[in-house]
Amino acid sequence: MTIHRLVSWLLALAALSIGPAALAHKPSDAYLTLQVDGTQIEQRLDVHLRDLDRELVLDRNDDGRLQWAEVHTRWAELQRYTTERVHLSVAGQPCTSVATGQPQLDDHTDGAYAVLRRRWTCPAGAQVLAIDYRLFAETDASHRGLLRLSHGAGAPQTAVLVPGSPLPTTVSLMATATGNAPSGFGGFVAEGIHHILIGTDHVLFLLALLLPAVLVSKASGWREAATQWRPMLTEVLKIVTAFTVAHSVTLALAVLDIVDPPSRWVESLIAVSVVFTAINNLRPMLAPQHRWRLTLVFGLVHGFGFAGALKDLGLGGGSLAASLLGFNLGVELGQLSLVALFLPLAWWARSTRFYQRGVLIGGSSAVALIAAAWVVERVFDLKLLGS
What we know:
2 domains, four-stranded antiparallel β-sheet, alpha+beta
């Protein structure tokens, strides 16, 4: 492989990482809660107003802030829009539904959600429920629905719903009080992978840490590490381990409601962590051997950012433990995939002036500028880069 092709791969990876940089950190999630009682299923569907506004233009005066009147007057339209995209059936027979409850909003970790309630009636004797979930399938490939299904006193079942999936998600309706309901572990592994790969600020933080990993530090700045690949792997191992340990701790603390910092400040500090790490590449403030400590500190903040989806799902007991473990494992797999993709390319190109100047200096500068805009957006609740 020529150096030009290596450079092209590095540029493509940078474009994939920075392309969606204007997006907010927390990916689009909706929360589908189903309470089964015989042939009756009570549904609560929480959908972010930001996503509904994108589809239905709820902010009619275009002032950037949704008012209750703007949402309330369109409630029937919200019900119709979501009902057309969420269907329940058993054994190929559709369940019927009717809207219930009053218009309601609820605050989640990342803002206000519309709470849409329905009562479903399914054919008697059903053992398996099929959920055809297509919310935002046409407009947001990153969206996921997070399912929590309760049946009597049994442990709730969980699953991740992928919009537009060729086959509907199926869950058992035969759960009992023994707590043997499936946990959807594999789905939450996939959700953890998905979460970090589309979490642009997490990706840029990790890439900013990896950029100088193939180089060694001297008083004059970063310098090529010649053929010494072992020091590079040692540093990467320290960085990845520190990030893993730190975010695993705070992810668990947040999901278990032991520590609950405000989401706005968590997101702001995550952006600050990206800025600081990128600037440290340009004007080193920490010796390379201490960069893992920086990763450990900022990793604690990123763990709180990972917690939003699981925390809002409202799980408990064994379902929470399995979902938390699966989600965290998925985050680690996603993180390792990024390292495995980026590191060989960076190692091969490390001796070029393009890498030392263009990728390290230019890339770190771009990351710092993007993250600085995030800081302003998140601290002052502004929109600088769009949404």
